TrEMBL record:
Biased composition (Basic and acidic residues): 66-80
Species: Rhizobium esperanzae
Name this polypeptide is given: Transposase
Keywords: Coiled coil
Domain of life from the UniProt record: Bacteria
Region (Disordered): 46-80
UniProt key word Coiled coil: yes
Coiled coil: 12-39
Amino acid sequence: MSNEPVVGNSEVKKLEERVRELERMLGRKTLEAEILREAISKTQTTKQISRPILLPKEVPDEDTSRDELRPEDHIGKVVR
């Protein structure tokens, strides 16, 4: 005789249902990850295209007060 424990049919059915449930969850998460990767890819492409348009034409001097700067002067620049 085998040394493996005997498992009842009801326990096997519960475990099989759990496996099916986990497989469905994995499928949904895989699809979600694919959608997010596609969105990130499209966002990065758009970002690369629009970035040169958003950069300020002239970077103000460091001693210029923040009140004198326009909002578009802050784009792409680290504000301290």
